[in-house]
Design brief:
It is built from nine helices and 18 strands. The chain is α+β, with helices and mostly antiparallel strands. The protein has a single domain, classed as Penicillin V Acylase, Chain A, CATH 3.60.60. A hairpin with a 4-residue loop joins β3 and β4. The N and C termini lie far apart (about 60 Å).
């Protein structure tokens, strides 16, 4: 063999070796991320005429650095969250965005005729792409199923998720859940509250506690809480920092039938404009007689977009109680059967009553992006996009075994 041929072969071998080493290194660093991107699956295509975005599922391997997030004390705002997620997931090579748009929603708890604990939720906003995210169980952490609005991550609402960059961005979905369930039968949802009088003021506590933002509270509850009481302890042990000029409250429920509403308030609506002064108020489903006669007479709970604390709106116009009409309507339906519904489909029927297409909009949101009924006893989810309640192809069921 000529010397030039040997040199050429040597160069080729060297290049292939470098490529192999780089490939092994990339896989060693990003094997969980690569697996998650590869797992993304389109389960329902978009229908722009009906304001339906595309719906995806994604299975996330590993711990997605949540334990590291807890160790560093969380973050105080979206910018810090973006920095954390970018540094961990993309190693600082690519930027990822997270934001909190204004949303309006409804939820309630109930029991099925067979005794199963149910948590039902409408997410109302506008046309968007959605991802249902599955995470793994690990030591000290629960497996979870959660729903993410991909426009929170800057994904174009008018296009499907097709580019590699968009799929990489979707890796941040684990830090932006809106509702979900874990394998212990704990569910949680987030709902906007419009606190602060004429201009919404975000909660922005600043004590010596570690910190979380709106959606990361939900993530911590799903991953670490075995029941409602542990969810409350998580909320008590952190400072809440809402962002994007919004404010939120939460509902949490577990398989025992216990539920709670978590709210951060200071004084009344007209004067609740100091986000640092707000304190956590915890309202359990079986200890809520102080809220009102309707609430005290029942063991189920309802939440929409107004603060439920008594006398909070005394100095404000009645219309400031955003979603109160939906709140009363859901209670009206549940009262007919004392909070007992036949099954998940019956709970979904109640959600359909207050869907955006059939309800008089009081918040400017154009559609119900998704409706979900979480069975906290069976640890399953009945999930329907954008009020397609009568379309069998739009009805999805998820569980931890499938």
């Amino acid at each position: 063999m000529k010397r030039s041929e040997k040199v050429f072969i040597g160069i080729i071998v060297a290049l292939l070796t470098v490529v192999l080493i780089l490939g092994i290194s990339v896989y060693a660093i990003w094997h969980n991320e690569i697996s998650a991107i590869a797992s993304m699956k389109l389960i329902r295509d978009r229908n722009d005429e009906h304001l339906d975005g595309a719906v995806y599922t994604m299975k996330v391997k590993g711990g997605f650095y949540l334990d590291d997030f807890v160790k560093v004390g969380g973050v105080k705002n979206d910018a810090e969250l973006i920095d954390f997620v970018t540094s961990k997931i993309t190693k600082g090579l690519l930027d990822i965005g997270i934001s909190d748009p204004e949303i309006a929603c409804s939820s309630f708890t109930a029991k099925s005729e067979s005794g199963d604990a149910l948590f039902a939720r409408n997410y109302d906003f506008s046309k968007t792409n959605t991802c249902i995210v599955f995470t793994e169980k690990s030591e000290g952490r629960h497996a979870t199923i959660s729903t993410v609005d991909l426009q929170f991550l800057g994904i174009d609402v008018d296009k499907n998720v097709e580019s590699l960059m968009d799929k990489i961005t979707c890796l941040a979905s684990t830090y932006a859940p809106l509702d979900g369930i874990n394998d212990a039968g704990v569910s949680c949802g987030i709902y906007m509250t419009y606190q602060g009088g004429e201009e919404t003021v975000p909660t922005n506590q600043n004590t010596d506690k570690p910190d979380f933002t709106s959606t990361t509270l939900l993530r911590l509850i799903l991953d670490y809480a075995d029941n409602v009481e542990e969810a409350v302890e998580i909320a008590k042990n952190y400072d809440l920092h809402d962002s994007a000029k919004t404010s939120y409250h939460y509902m949490v429920a577990d398989s025992s039938g216990k539920s709670v509403i978590l709210e951060w308030v200071n004084q009344t609506d007209a004067s609740d404009n100091d986000g640092e002064a707000r304190e956590l108020k915890v309202t359990y489903n079986d200890e809520d007689a102080h809220i009102g006669e309707m609430e005290g007479a029942t063991d189920y709970q309802v939440i929409t977009n107004f603060i439920i604390q008594p006398n909070y709106y005394d100095l404000s116009p009645a219309e400031d109680k955003k979603g109160y009409d939906r709140y009363e309507r859901i209670y009206e339906e549940l009262n007919k059967t004392d909070g007992i519904v036949k099954d998940e489909e019956a709970a979904m029927d109640i959600l359909s009553i207050v869907g955006r297409r059939t309800w008089d909009n009081d918040d400017g949101n154009g559609c119900t992006v998704h409706s979900a009924v979480y069975n906290l006893t069976d640890k399953t989810v009945l999930w329907i996009p954008n009020e397609n309640y009568d379309d069998p192809s739009a009805v999805f069921e998820f569980g931890f075994n499938s």
